[in-house]
Amino acid sequence: MRKLLKFYSLPLLSAFLMGTSYIPFPPWALFFCYVPLWVFALKQKKLKPLLIGGFLCQFVATLIGFNWVAYTIREFGFFPWPLAVLGLLGFAGFTNLHMPIALLFWFITQKQINKIKSNENLSRLTLLLLPLYFALCMEYYPMIFEWNFGYTWFYAKWPAAHTAQIWGFKFLNTLTLFFNLFFLFFYLKLASKQHKKVDRLLSLLRLNIKDSSTKGHFANISAALPSLLWLIGTWTLLFTGLNFYGHYLKTKWPDPDKTAHVLLVQPNIENLATAYKKSKKDPRPLALSQLIKETKKYFNNESKPPPDFILWPEGAYPYRIQHDGRKARESFAQRQARKWKSPIVVSTIGENPKGTTNSIFVFNKKGGLVQSPYDKTLLLAFGEYLPGEKWLPIDKWLSYYGRSFQRGTGENKVTQLNGINLGFQICYEGLFDFFTRDLSRKKAQILVNVTNDSWYGSWQQPWQHLYMTLARSIEVRRPLIRGTNTGLSAFISAKGKIDKISTLNKNTSWIQEIPYYSEEKQSTFSLWGYYINQYFLWCLFTLCLGYFFLCKIRTEKNA
User: Which of 124, 188, 298, 417 has a 20 to 30 A CA-CA distance from 266?
Assistant: First the structure.
């Protein structure tokens, strides 16, 4: 075991650097976390240890960065801790397999490159392909929820995050990978000879390090100093330039010309299934009482004007609402809308002739449906539907409420209320850039995200989910209000200013002032920037492929 740990120490080091650089950790190793793994790859002559190293890296990094999955399995499925931990291990085993897959493609490619020994630039091409393959595989590998290191730029409050209005956060993740390439070059400039493959690479990079003595080591550093200064200077210039450009984009974006006022309610209601398991009593009356009590705090002062609408988040309203298209069966929410003379946006379970849905209902101040409810389109696997549920006894596994929802069609995502176009996201949907881009192109003026993160505990996930959702606002330059049951509720302006973040596991409510635009204005990302990351990666891959074949043809002619 000691030998194995020593052999795979570099991939494990990368895993630690990656896992501790993602939200909510500070991004301390963001720009060199891949370097140990890539150095390990350069040393391998055989495919098997390379794939094992890549697998171990993604496995351990996932355990560090997403260990909340075990809590979720226990909280959601009521499984004992040993099974919950096994579930986490299973999740870590496949969720980031894009890493060993990228190393597989790179290994096959560099084997072909090594056949052409007369061109030293091809060895530099070998290094360039490392971040390129990692970015491509991360772009297309299917994930239960999409994460990337671009969000870390936003969490770190670097102005460069505002360049996402041009090319999105996926491209910032790609830049992160290529910034790691600078530090790989930096390492190779200083590395001593320890492996034949690295020896050859360093030789081709004109770093003939032969003297292992202190004197020789310092001599080599001195000889490499101009190159090291060039690498550091270029990296610093690019990073600084991106931050200045992001700050410029933020200040250049115009100020909104209209304002809406929303009563955001965070009732902090315990999961109904968990409450039922504890007491064996129907927890819904108490949950509804808690929701109404928190909302009434605003209406106790009769001098206050009614808000443009009240926002009740996912998991807060405990009863199903039966409906048939534009007609809803009389519900308590409608009666409260009439009583308070305020529209209410309610996120709850809908029930129609086709089945149950995770839906958003919008009632006007007279209690009528503004339009057909929006049914959640992107359902969460294992949370809102169980793969293979037709052949499994799901009713015996999940208590109190079934989790199998009908999938929405994606229609009616934009709803007009009091002259404002609202674009809805239900929880998980806020993680997908294409989904919010579609809302923007459908002329949504305010993005409304409703979430119930009470299944995930108070460590890591609430902060990860928060910033991954708020990032959508920067990409499409729309204000976004996020209402949650237990936190973290928040608001971010179209210019990327986070106005308020609520406290976790605490009931609260407040009037949120939301500046928005009366006229449509689309960001570059909304128009065509969504494709920049894909175009960049495939164009670079095509250039690399073309250069390889050109060198191969020249070598064959010279031979």
Answer: 417
E strand or H helix at 217: helix 214-252
Q: Which of 459-487 are b and which e, b meaning 16 or more Cβ less than 10 Å from the residue's Cβ? A: ebbbbbbbbbbbbbbbbbbbbbbbbbbbb
- Please choose, from the candidates 347, 352, 241, the residue with its C-alpha nearest in 3D space to the C-alpha of residue 291: 347
pLDDT in tens, 74-125: 887 778 899 999 999 999 999 999 999 999 999 999 988 887 765 566 778 8
Which tokens in the block code for residue 220?
């080599």
Two structure tokens written together for 5: 């740990």
Neighbours of 190 (CB within 10 A): 13
pLDDT of the residue at 197: 47
502-509 contacts at long range (C-beta below 8 A, 24 or more positions apart): 502/266, 504/458, 504/462, 505/268, 505/458, 506/266, 506/268, 507/266, 507/267, 507/268, 507/290, 507/294, 508/266, 508/268, 508/294, 509/263, 509/264, 509/265, 509/266, 509/294, 509/295, 509/297, 509/298
For the stretch 449-486, pLDDT in tens is 999 998 898 899 999 999 999 999 999 999 999 999 99
Residues forming the active site:
314, 376, 427
Domain at 258-525, CATH from 3.40.50.1000, 3.40.1180.10, 3.60.110.10, 3.90.1860.10: 3.60.110.10
What is the rounded CA–CA span in Å between residue 122 and residue 553? 13
Start-end of H helices in 205-213: none
* Maximum C-alpha span of the chain: 91
At 381, give phi and psi (nearest 5°). -60, 140
**474 within 8 A of 165, measured Cβ to Cβ:** yes
Q: Pairing relation of β-strands 309-312 and 446-451?
A: unpaired
Q: At what angle do helices 35-43 and 98-114 cross, to 10 degrees?
A: 40
**Nearest-angstrom CA–CA distance, 278 and 264:** 29
507 contacts 475 by C-beta, under 8 angstroms: no
- Complete DSSP assignment for 460-517: SHHHHHHHHHHHHHHHHT--EEEEESSS--EEE-TTS-EEEEPPTT--EEEEEEEEE-
**pLDDT tens-place string over residues 513-537:** 999 999 989 999 999 999 999 999 9
Tokens of 536: 């960049």
**Domain residue extents for the chain:** 2-252, 258-525
Residue 144 phi, psi dihedral angles, 5° rounding: -60, -45
**Reading across the β-sheet that carries 414-417, which strands appear in turn?**
414-417, 420-426, 446-451, 480-484, 490-492, 498-501
Write down the pTM of the prediction. Answer: 0.91
What is the rounded distance in angstroms from the CA atom of residue 293 to the CA atom of residue 384? 29
Q: pLDDT at residue 400 above 50?
A: no
Q: Could you tell me which residues are beta bridge partners of residue 490?
A: 482, 501
Q: What is the pLDDT of residues 364-387, one digit of tens each?
A: 999 999 999 999 998 887 777 766
- Note the pLDDT tens digit of each residue in 48-82: 999 999 999 999 999 999 999 999 888 877 788 99
Contact 299, 265 (CB under 8 A): no
- Pairing relation of β-strands 498-501 and 508-516? unpaired
User: Considering only CA atoms, which of 280, 231, 313, 228 is closest in space to residue 489?
Assistant: 313
